[in-house]
Amino acid sequence: MKRKNPYILQTIDAHPRKRKIITEEEFLVMQNLLLTLQTLSQKLVSELNVENILTDIMKTLGEALGAVWVNIWELTPDGKKIYIKQGYGRKGTEKYITHSRAHPIPLGVAFIGRAIKTKKTWSSSDMWTDPHLPRTWIKTVKEQHFRGIVCVPQIVESAKVIGGMCVYFKDVRVLSDFEMRLITIAANQAAVSVVNANIYNELIAERDKTLATINSLNEGVILYDNENRVLLLNPKAQEILLVQPKDILGKTPTKEMFEKNVSLKNLYEISHLTLSDYEAKEYSFEEPSKTILEITAVPVRGTGHLKIGSMRILRDITREKEVDIIKSKFISTASHQLRTPLSGIRWALDALRGGDEGPLTTTQQNLVEKTYKTATGLNELLDNLLDASKIEERGLVYVFREYDLLSLVKNIIKEFSVQLQEQKITLVLREPTNPIPKVQIDPKALSMAIRNFIDNAIRYSLPGKKVLISLSTGMYYVMLFIKDSGIGIPKEEQKSIFSKFFRAKNAQLLRTEGSGLGLYLAKSIVEKHNGRVMFESKENQGSEFSIYLPLEEQKMPLNRKK
Predict the structure, then answer these.
(1) Residue 168 sits in the same domain as residue 83
(2) Do 517 and 384 contact (CB within 8 A), yes or no?
(3) Same domain, 93 and 45
(4) Domain limits for position 93
(5) Which of 170, 187, 385, 472 measures 20 to 30 Å from 352, CA to CA?
(6) Which of 316, 343, 358 is the last residue before a domain boundary?
(7) Which of 392, 411, 428 lies at the terminal end of a domain, its last residue?
(8) 16 pLDDT exceeds 60?
(9) Does residue 380 lie within any of the structural domains?
């Protein structure tokens, strides 16, 4: 009689009725199977190639059970038949795989077909005498020296069957429950490895496709993680900035870094531009050649819309700006040429209005007044054109100094007293309860910008409406808000509202006069102050424009020619 294992006797002593005495040999078999299970689990994490994983699983399982062949079956694309995908343990496996692919088995046929169709294990300790095996197959089975067989379905998430596994024995074989469970676990581990490999390959393919797309773009792309480390620099960005990936990838651009390597200066400054999501800003440099870029900040979001990084898109607009400058020079020259005769016309009209050439009839007086008003509007248009030309040619010189924004706004409001009365508009200044810190501005230039915002709010409000102006202080900015209850801006036209010469359709219907330069100039001036302009608007309900001026010293504008 074989010796009983004392460890087993001790562990089941608490349940004498359920006690089952096993031999030391049986215990060693179970221990070997557990080690096999451990080995199978390790295969899944130590290998990426799915064919190698499946071969290792089949080899380990076959050797542990003493099987002569182990194979894995896969569904055809239509899911109605199956064929051998891979096998291990006998010579000529490739021949069987080729034959199986050419002649797949319908679901429900043979042990493997039944296992996959019913999602249950099908086995036979002796196929030679098993009534479930088609009689026409017995000769082939005997020639192959197969007697025992176990076929299990491969089931993954949501009880989906993706194939099956069969284990073959040369002798009659009655498997224990533990061995049956081991085969099922091995089959499902093989299925998981196939699914994971497919997902991995899809991710790699998607990554490669994305990288190929980014690398083929005609715009520079700099990709950062949430710690502002540079993860990617596409070829166009390398060409524009003259930066090699090895110098910056995996690093956060710092001032110390570009001081050691001058070629990183532009990358550092672009990385530290203050931009909100999808905001664009111009950036230019002179060396090695004059280049003007439009930098756009784009967030990168992952699962759950969480931000996992960001991108800076670099678009070279040097050529466009050169063309704009040529246009601006032409407009500037034409405007200067027009101002002289226009001044003469206004002088003559003013003389007529003042009676210097004798009294005028009522009809003549009205005609002169209309003509003078038109000439004045034309003069304002020429002024705007000249200002726009100066901005685009970078000929407008800003002199920044600390200034009280509230007092500046109050002085500007006084200029609109006549216009407010004529249009029957009420303007309310809501003064802040706490003092507003001084900001670094060019009072003359910023006054022009604020004047344009207020003028728009009054001009496009209907009689009896109200314009509200307020100021507040944030952590990083002083904010000026100009809100009206006017005609608003149609949603489909809001993207163009700061474009040069653009006027919304409803604005043209309300007032035919206007150059479409006011908001363009105002936004440009605010941005020269390193500030931002934002707005919200609903058609027929009104608009609110917000001006943000920086308080942080490192973001304040410097006195230099723009």
Answers:
(1) yes
(2) yes
(3) yes
(4) 6-200
(5) 385
(6) 316
(7) 392
(8) no
(9) yes
Banded model confidence at residue 80, pLDDT cuts 50, 70, 90: very high
d(CA 463, CA 511): 14
In a domain, 211, yes or no: no
In our burial notation (b when 16+ CB lie closer than 10 A, e otherwise), range 501-530 reads eebbebbeeeeeebbbbbbbbbbbbbbbbb
What tokens appear for 271 in the block?
């990385």
165 and 263 fall within a common domain: no
Cβ-based neighbour number of residue 175 at 10 Å = 17
Give the whole-angstrom CA distance, residue 547 versus residue 479: 6
**CATH number for the domain including 282?**
3.30.450.20
287 & 191 share domain: no
Q: Which of 532, 499, 518 is nearest to 381 (CA)?
A: 518
Whole-angstrom CA distances from 560 to 111, 220, 397, 533, 557 are 85, 28, 7, 22, 9
Distances (CA, A) of 163 to 115, 122, 538, 560: 9, 14, 58, 72
Name the percent of the chain lying above pLDDT 70: 86
What is the DSSP track for 5-60?
PHHHHHHTTT-GGG----BHHHHHHHHHHHHHHHHHHHHHHH---HHHHHHHHHHH
- Taking Cα atoms as reference points, which of 234, 246, 226 lies closest to residue 313? 234
The answer to whether residues 503 and 519 belong to one domain is yes
DSSP 8-state code for residue 426: E
Q: Which position has the higher pLDDT, 38 or 350?
A: 350
Assess whether pLDDT exceeds 60 at residue 470: yes
> Is 61 part of any domain?
yes
In this structure, the answer to whether residues 123 and 10 fall within a common structural domain is yes
Does an H or E element contain 233, and which? strand 230-233
Residue 478 has pLDDT above 90, yes or no: yes
What confidence score (pLDDT) does residue 176 get? 83
Model confidence at 5, in pLDDT bands (50, 70, 90)?
very low
**Taking every pair of C-alpha atoms in the chain, what is the biggest distance, in angstroms?**
144
Q: Which helix (H) or strand (E) holds 257?
A: helix 255-260
Q: Report the 10 Å Cβ neighbour count for 544.
A: 16
pTM of the model: 0.53
Residues 252 and 354 in one domain: no
Look up residue 7 and give its amino acid.
Y
Whether residues 246 and 361 share a domain: the answer is: no
The domain total for the chain is: 4
| DSSP 8-class letter at 495 | G
The pLDDT tens digits of the residues spanning 272-319 come to: 888 888 888 888 888 778 899 999 999 999 888 889 999 999 999 988
Q: What is the pLDDT of residue 296?
A: 94
Q: What is the pLDDT of residues 481-528, one digit of tens each?
A: 999 999 999 999 988 888 877 888 888 887 767 677 888 889 988 988
